Amino acid sequence: MTTQTAPIRVNQPAYARSLPAMLLSALLLLAITGHAQGVPENGATHGRKTVRALRAEAAITLDGNLDEPSWQEAPISLGFVQRDPQEGADSSERTEFRVLYTATTLFLGVICYDSDSQGVLATDRRRDSELQNDDILSIVLDTFHDHRNGFLFRTNPLGAQYDALITDEGNSINVTWDEQWNVVTQITPAGWIAEFAIPFKSLRVPEEGGNGWGLELERVIRRKNEFSYWNGYRRGFKLENLSQAGHLSGIEEIATGLRLRIKPYLVGGLTQAVRQDAALGTDRFRSSVRNASDAGIEVVKYRITPSLTADLTWNTDFAQTEVDDQQVNRSRFPQFFPEKREFFQEGAGVFDIGIHYGEGRGRPQLKLFHSRQIGLSPRRQPVPIIGGGRITGKLQGLTLGLLNVQTEALPSEGILASNYGVVRVKRDILARSSVGGFVLSREQGGASNFNRVYGTDANFVFFQHFAVNGFVAQSSSPGVQQDNWVTGGTVGWDSDLFKLDTSWLVVDPEFRSDLGFVPRPNMREISPEIAFRPRPSNDLIRQLVFRTRVDYLMNQQNVLEDRTIHTAIEVLFQNGSDFGFNPHESRDTIPEDFHIRPGVVIPPGTYTSWHTGARFRSNPANRFTFSSNIQPNWGYYNEGFLLGAGLNTRFKVNEQISLESEYDYGRASLPDRFCPGRAAGDCGFTDHDLNARLNYNITNQWLTSTIVQYNNTENFFGFNFRLNYIFRPGDDFFLIYNEGRAYGGPFDGQKDRTLQTKLTYSFDF
């Protein structure tokens, strides 16, 4: 066990002992009062190409054929360049595109020539699938030309639709954003063609016309694992790095169209709850059925200005939201579940606050604002939402986000009626940097309890790959006057070849954010990392990665609690597959009894272990793809052993049917003293966690998914079926059946079932 030192209490406020806090405050003041926006800095865009859009005088028929006279008259843009496998080389297959527009719609016609049209890969029709197994074409529009934020539209040769909002060059990507747009594709003997139609009313623009936009296109030839770009081909950047995009000119005298959209919904259905009835005996159950029909307003969208939008919702329903994946938790801290609800996802990047760790860091240590705290209980049960409103967009050079939501009480979960509010203001400065401020608030009706968080944050990028970002915030709650601050940040260089950075996070014992994810208060963490990523000249291997990171975590008394040394050797192959070997050494101090599983108690103490992992991901161009990993942990809690393993599979039967599965396995053996009351040699546990999905997509408009879930740790079995008919862009009919049942344990035999239909229909004015 560790020897505890005497607590050291420092009565100074956190900002007085935090240089990052003072710097961030000064930078925020500079941003609000100064005029630094748009000043060039080292590492500015290398996107030099420009295409001019031609105004179409005649109507354009969206049919995947670029045969109208307007298409023939439009300037042709060429010159796609590889990022991989050969940076700077011409794309191995010719790609050309044209841009047209009318008063209401932007059209892009792209011809993807292919010398082997039989090799074009197209297997997926799902809306919002990332299309990782197919040939794809992506278009990004930076309508404000701020080199930071944009709209992403993606398709494959089957015309599947994927769209997303990009914020701060990809620091936040909202993949559940859905808007009204269309694309028609066809495969030809010469390759394939995509014809996009994107209404201006689905975008946000700074003025009615005469504005230059940013534009980038990406083409992926999957069988070659080749990525080529119109402009931003440099390694160390991604498609989302809009500072590297090209330029679109010539769009004038357009009508942004939508001023008001009202989108009501109707839900019809029933729910059934099967519960044990003590009056009938412990093995008898009683079923209760209630009406699950409802009506409300999915969203009222009002365009205040072309760049500022208000969204209102009333009696909000999330029946169509996909169920959460099951997770196995072997730690002492809460699990993190991503937001999937459409209302909270749209414009979510504006409200993104905190540290941007980058790839490979797992779940976040802290999120100051996490919208799942609104309308969901800690046990992930729906909390009724009476209504809410949101304003997002640009105003006087500022990025603005306002959110207010009122929820009802949920007595079964001990939750009072509450009001949630967020104010977010941010200004872009220099070429790729920003500073901002925020206020988060929760008020509980019928109680004096409240929580507010105030803070500033900043993100600076210099010399293309050198970044500094951080934040500082203070919470306010009844009876708390000190030890209620949080600060964090990262600083480092991250290019394709080399990475050197460090991050830090300090959470005071009394800091609290009711709108955030704060799994671990009373902590100080520093995490330095170094990585070397050479690219050998080799027909088999595309890149090697050698990485080391140390997570060093103390409490506020500077007593070490956790330390983990991560190392990794990764091999990225030319065909898209990869292999990784990841040994780790960890030290964990447990301050009190940790009930890791029923009947298994880890006593207080300091524990060290050494564990390693190996994983392999197969070529994504194959019809059957998989990733697998194995993680033996020697000295698990000093004297035990844990074997972890996982297998994810995906099988594309044809362009309509695919099967996917995620399976996680863990088996632990522990000393008998950790299992009081069990027989000798019977101390440990076994985890099985399965998420399996069958996708059957009849057409691009008729989509079905069937999900089966199993988690023996929570004694849970789940089944979810969803039929989605997109009868017009932005409007849907859903048929949803959902069942969850408990097996084993104290709630064995209990069930919850729901059968619902949902219809949305938009009225645009």
What descriptive keywords fit this protein?
mainly beta, Immunoglobulin-like, 28-stranded antiparallel β-sheet, 9-stranded mixed β-sheet, 3 helices, globular, disordered N terminus
> Which range best describes the helical content: under 10%, 10-25%, 25-40%, 40-55%, 55-70% or over 70%?
under 10%
> Which stretches are low in confidence, meaning pLDDT under 50 for 5 or more residues running?
1-45
CATH architecture assignment of the domain at 37-249: Sandwich
**Main β-sheet, in a few words?**
28 strands, antiparallel
Explain what the structure shows:
By secondary structure, the chain is mainly beta. The protein has 3 helices and 44 strands. The strands form 4 sheets. It has a 28-stranded antiparallel β-sheet that branches. The N terminus is likely disordered.
